[in-house]
Hints:
By secondary structure, chain A is mostly helical. Chain A has helices spanning 12-40, 54-86, 94-119, 133-155, 164-183, 189-192, 208-243, 250-264, 279-291, 293-306, 311-316, 318-340, 343-349, 354-383, 390-423, 435-440, 443-472; strands at residues 186-188, 202-204. Chain A contains 17 helices and two strands. Copper (II) ion is lined by residues 220, 223, 270-271 of chain A.
Amino acid sequence: xxxxxxxxxxxxxxxxxxxxxxxxxxxxxxxxxxxxxxxxxxxxxxxxxxxxxxxxxxxxxxxxxxxxxxxxxxxxxxxxxxxxxxxxxxxxxxxxxxxxxxxxxxxxxxxxxxxxxxxxxxxxxxxxxxxxxxxxxxxxxxxxxxxxxxxxxxxxxxxxxxxxxxxxxxxxxxxxxxxxxxxxxxxxxxxxxxxxxxxxxxxxxxxxxxxxxxxxxxxxxxxxxxxxxxxxxxxxxxxxxxxxxxxxxxxxxxxxxxxxxxxxxxxxxxxxxxxxxxxxxxxxxxxxxxxxxxxxxxxxxxxxxxxxxxxxxxxxxxxxxxxxxxxxxxxxxxxxxxxxxxxxxxxxxxxxxxxxxxxxxxxxxxxxxxxxxxxxxxxxxxxxxxxxxxxxxxxxxxxxxxxxxxxxxxxxxxxxxxxxxxxxxxxxxxxxxxxxxxxxxxxxxxxxxxxxxxxxxxxxxxxxxxxxxxxxxxxxxxxxxxxxxxxx
Amino acid sequence: xxxxxxxxxxxxxxxxxxxxxxxxxxxxxxxxxxxxxxxxxxxxxxxxxxxxxxxxxxxxxxxxxxxxxxxxxxxxxxxxxxxxxxxxxxxxxxxxxxxxxxxxxxxxxxxxxxxxxxxxxxxxxxxxxxxxxxxxxxxxxxxxxxxxxxxxxxxxxxxxxxxxxxxxxxxxxxxxxxxxxxxxxxxxxxxxxxxxxxxxxxxxxxxxxxxxxxxxxxxxxxxxxxxxx
Amino acid sequence: xxxxxxxxxxxxxxxxxxxxxxxxxxxxxxxxxxxxxxxxxxxxxxxxxxxxxxxxxxxxxxxxxxxxxxxxxxxxxxxxxxxxxxxxxxxxxxxxxxxxxxxxxxxxxxxxxxxxxxxxxxxxxxxxxxxxxxxxxxxxxxxxxxxxxxxxxxxxxxxxxxxxxxxxxxxxxxxxxxxxxxxxxxxxxxxxxxxxxxxxxxxxxxxxxxxxxxxxxxxxxxxxxxxxxxxxxxxxxxxxxxxxxxxxxxxxxxxxxxxxxxxxxxxxxxxxxxxxxxxxxxxxxxxxxxxxxxx
Lengths: 488, 229, 295
Ligand code: HEM
Ligand code: HEM
Ligand SMILES: [Ca+2]
Ligand SMILES: [Ca+2]
Ligand SMILES: [Cu+2]
């Protein structure tokens, strides 16, 4: 085994993506908090005229947190840990370095333009694929650039075997590439109609039920390859690295990975249960969703077992706390999802707040926790300073944990209640509740969720501040810490 | 065990790709031809309705409204007949939605009317106390982009063989020639409305967003079956 | 059991109890199979997710890392060659078996039809409520009517049936003077009564005013002489001549069912037809309820 210290890694691209992770994270969650508040207090819809309604802001929230925050986080961690597990520095290839930088800047400019276009109402209206066709083309370009950077680094690697994290980054790359392309296929109307109308407008290549199938084949797997696979990549690197513990079981890693790859794509039709897609396809969606529990839990359990015997670290290092809790929230959402995918349960759960509840177990408890922990871990190594404040991090941890619990418990109760109220009949067999009855009853839960948003956002601001101070004014380090991140 | 594969990034990537592409091929492809066939008697959206659908997309009603009635008694009692695949044949994109913060709208044309929508879009709480739906007052003054809607009709006709008449054809001139038909339809909607700005705009040959949107909402339901007429 | 696991299960229990309390407050019938399975699912999620993760976290305190390390090492990260955790492996097997069952017997891929199931559901429903729907007792009908009204009609007519200050028919009265004048002046032909159309101009000027005022006032006091023109169709008492023309005195079953069948466009606005959504029993119930709204 060679010494790691010999190699100087270059973090310039990782740093750039770190900044946008924080920027888009704040923006996305600010809007999330606002739309949460709007459902509890509808007057808040009119802060920004037609651009401020819940409906206009909701896709802005989802797009910014997914394509802004999460993707930035994925790339920040990739450009950081990729070099390290492949044992090769970006600085070794001018070409890869240049591709990395273009990757970032193209991404950043496109992201800002996309935010504006969505605010103006240019949308394909397919969830998580809203951006109109010119943006889709840029997205493809950005993706290709990332591919070149990643496979370029792999090409010149010193470490023969790919580490687990790399498996997942590669899968993320391939999965999104395939799915994004198919789902966004559309025909721009301007060209076909002989230059009539708006040039941004397009119609989907598929119609009706087919469009739905392609959309949720994509949508479900956007979750899989955006919110799951690259986050698993992160935890496999950052948890063992921060704790200094060896990964519990190679076999478990292997089975979980290939299990996940094989099963995930089949489950997409659980978004279309009781719809007009054929019955057999729906059943496949339910079946594979349940089978998916164990490959998902496999990674989480592998990580929790990696920390066997390390209770001290858990209590003393808030960074470990974040990652351990992230694993458990991952377990929660990957059990909740499959159970919601059972046809009888979905009859209640679909269309209700129980789904956003499930979503945010995953994104707030798993995705954001993991990304923040990763950036915290990277900061002392990238900026050569110790983390500014451990106390602040501890406080942030408890604040945000409270927020996630409030979010998912309130939406859990709200969703189940609403779903059952929609079905309820009175003693004569007539519907018991008018639709509006099932809306007003949710007010307290919406208010609690809005409060959760405020708490979580506050926590994120604490994170941003802590990072900012770490970059600018924390105590400098003379040498890179091997495992545990130093913090004041 | 699999270690050799992890040392060969190329084969590894091919392996991952095959494993993930497999499901799509088996699950998605077989159904494709069948699911795009329209049910008997279904007519395509009129250009005005298409313009309304664009408002529906732009103001993103799909954030709160579904258009998919599931086959449960409770649901068919509330919204009417469960949805059929062939009813969506002209829906590009599909607008089923995934969240019902408000009620399903797939057949809302059957049980709500122009004047009700006018009141409701202007101020939802004026008809449904306790509603948390935003008011969409700007739709009463913003002008709908019927030109782009026309372009959409041309596109789906030429590319996907949607059965529109011969008067839907490419080019700005063709659009101008077609425009009176759109306006005539808009006038019918405006006649059932009270808002002065809207009536004035339509009289002046413009189509406020809300008029197009209401045309679209009214089309959701049995209005699109020729059999009914 | 470990303290952490107990805490986790306690949290799960609180969540489930809270859910049950809220749901019960809304009079939800938990014996409905869909509701029951959903609650079971919720219990499974809470207990397993919190319980199992707490079990593993607790091991951090009690257990020790051990095993044979692989030769490889990435950026200082090692890897044990440990076996699969048995619980995980058996559960995986368990879900596979469940999957086969669901696939072959739960919702057999080659036999199950959701539309078929809907037909069954409707049949079962009809059987269950057949008795309730035979009712003719006025009080029951009114109660039944109220809940139908709140679901189907209240969005236009308001929860109190007052027409939301002029946005739809106000059921506390029969018709307003303007509505009646509108019909007299324009005639009307949309409700499908045996008489067919009512022609415009059956009365005019002051006569029309008087008739309209009298009908709108609840037909109290002396009948205007000009009402004779109306009586030929609507009956001397204005009650519709046994269903030949609309009852102008009150909302009777004939009127309600004609309106529900055909919808109505009047001076206030347009009401859609509810032909496909309202059953005959429900029509009776709605009539009973609407009549009860009279001031
Ligand atoms: C075993 C893994 C999982 C399964 C089987 C699963 C299953 C489901 C199901 C059944 C739905 C609801 C569909 C509906 O009725 O509308 C859903 C929605 C969703 N889940 Fe999961 N889930 C899993 C893991 C996750 C994770 C880890 C995340 C995020 C970190 C996540 C994010 C989402 C999102 C964003 C939606 C909403 C999609 C929409 O817009 O409708 N899921 N999932
Ligand atoms: C302060 C934190 C946040 C708050 C208060 C918040 C709030 C919300 C609200 C109110 C909705 C709409 C739910 C509805 O329509 O009923 C939503 C949707 C969504 N949010 Fe967030 N959010 C937050 C953070 C995030 C983050 C960090 C992510 C991803 C990384 C995320 C991903 C999503 C997704 C995917 C949806 C769509 C879910 C669906 O369609 O089912 N959110 N969020
Ligand atoms: Ca797109
Ligand atoms: Ca959704
Ligand atoms: Cu999914």
